[in-house]
Structure of Xaa-Pro dipeptidyl-peptidase-like domain-containing protein:
Amino acid sequence: MPRIPLPRTRSAKLTALAAVVVVLAAAAVVWTNSEPAPSAVRTQDTTLDLPETPGSSEIVKIDTTTYLPEQTPAPAVLLAHGFGGDKNSVTTEARELAEKGFVVLTWSARGFGRSTGKIALNDPDREVADAKKLIDGLAARPEVLKENGDPKVAVSGASYGGALSLLLAGTDKRVDAIAPVITYNDLAQGLFPNAAAPAAPNATTPAAGAFTADGVFKKSWAGIFFSAGSGAAQSGSPANDAPEAGDETSESGAAQGTGAAGAAAQSLPLGGQNGQRPPSGPADPCGRFTADVCQAYTELATTGKASQKTVDLLRRVSPASVTDQITVPTLLVQGESDTLFGLDQSDATARQITAAGGKVRTIWYTGGHDGGKPGQKLRAQIADFLKFSLTGQGTDPGTGFSYDIQGTLRANGAPSVRTVTAPAYPGATGDATERRQFTLAGPAQPVVR
């Protein structure tokens, strides 16, 4: 039977369709071949049995994950999570560090995730003692780089985790470097600050706080944290990256941090606190807090005032109690958009560690508890700092100071950013910060109608 010739138009369409299929197939090959190689990072999950307090026969279980880089032995980083989170909260940061050649150990602090025990707010005999045991474990691992049997180890973390890094560095000489992020110096001042003072505060640094007693209680923030520690699906940590310099075309910073003033707390997985099984019996009004912490919160929430006992408890778990013992290289990262722990907290820590003989580099970035967590570029700076501090590789970060200035809004609603740098944190060594006065002129303007 003779073939019926196809019309030229249909034949041309079929030819074009075949060509498109070939092109798409080729594109699929190119796409497949351009896929990034699978990460060589390996993970190991372990549950540790640690004493409730040093010398105690009571045991708490600490849930950990170790991230192992492709090449070992390698320097180690203890990476602590923020309040209301758990070890899974820092998975992205842990993998990034492991891909850069670090052994990274993450864990769920007492009372969070699948770890047992009560939340004691980084008590020296509880959470800090747990972290010392984690260093013991790193020291025993062949994958961890050592010098004369001493592990090369740094500690980093944000907020609650940042305070842990400072407290550990001040009490364990095996810590070689720290990089605390958006954290506090004095938790009492962080939760009920008072900037009023009979005399001007230290004027040598750009963000010195008065740190006067009898401040105003940050009820909203404290409520978020108490709810998170009681098993509610809330967290006070920022969930999104803050905008960064050079990110004008990216989505970085389009959504901001948590914020206590009117912003809802970040949602956590259902079914219990960060994967923790919900309690089967009646709810404990103190949640997973120790009795002392619960009593202190009850007092503050009821009266708005802190007794001396509460102040003493908060100062016991504050980095200010040990900063005079910290001499290791320190990178302080603090947020400019933070109604919880302001720049004055970082300022105090920078001055105290410098006075103790430590080498301090300071970064103020656009984020914070209200403005977002460190973006990818800032996280890379933190990794570079840790690598130089632990191995001597890379550029010496020195004692420089950098801060971000936000400009006009980008198309995605986030501000453009530029970064200003200085060779050192102003006033940390005693030289007064340069201050300029400007006279404002113009007609009177009504402030309140």
Remarks:
- Residues 8-33 form the longest helix (26 residues).
